[in-house]
Amino acid sequence: TLNKYFGLDIIGTNNVTIQDFVFTGNGRYIDIASGSQNILIQRNAFQHANGANDLAIIMTGGQDITISNNSFTDASRAITLSSMTSGISITGNNTFVGGNALSIDNTNNQHISNSNSGGANIILQDGCGINNQFNPITIANSNATLIENLNIVHPTGGGYAITTSNCNDIIIQNNTIENFRSAAAFNGGTDVQ
After folding, report:
1. pTM for the predicted model, two decimal places
2. Are 59 and 83 in contact (CB under 8 A)?
3. Per-residue model confidence as pLDDT tens for the chain (193 residues)
């Protein structure tokens, strides 16, 4: 069990597995920086990172990151991308309770899909658990984002499946979005399709 404000910093490190930890209390639990690759985060519990600046997993760089079979409880932002990162796969049966599942901040040229066909750099596999979140995908201050081929069906009724703030050139196509108050909410920005 780790309950420090900064849990694990991964900087310029390859072939890392983070498994079977319990992260609790406020803070940044896992911070992955540039130069890091082949990171596996699986079977961990992230609990109560619910302050305004708290992040369960933040990626400020890196590549080939797999997030699988974790539980996120009361995390303001469970998985956050704040720099160009390639090869992110959210797979397995993650559980999300409270907060936002995937947040993308100040990061351009993102391609989000359920497989890597077509050059997607963020893969949200069907069954990865993101559809159970009240607000699964939140994007802010980011341009040129394509979101396609996702199956986001909330089991009981969610808020907004996709939310954007101050984003330009956003394309949302060929998705199945059901049982949300709204499929998408756009706050500011231009050229949204």
Report:
1. 0.90
2. yes
3. 455 556 788 999 999 999 999 988 777 789 999 899 999 999 999 887 777 667 889 898 889 999 999 998 887 888 989 887 788 999 988 988 877 889 999 888 899 999 877 788 899 988 888 877 778 999 999 999 999 999 888 888 888 899 999 999 999 999 999 988 888 888 887 776 6
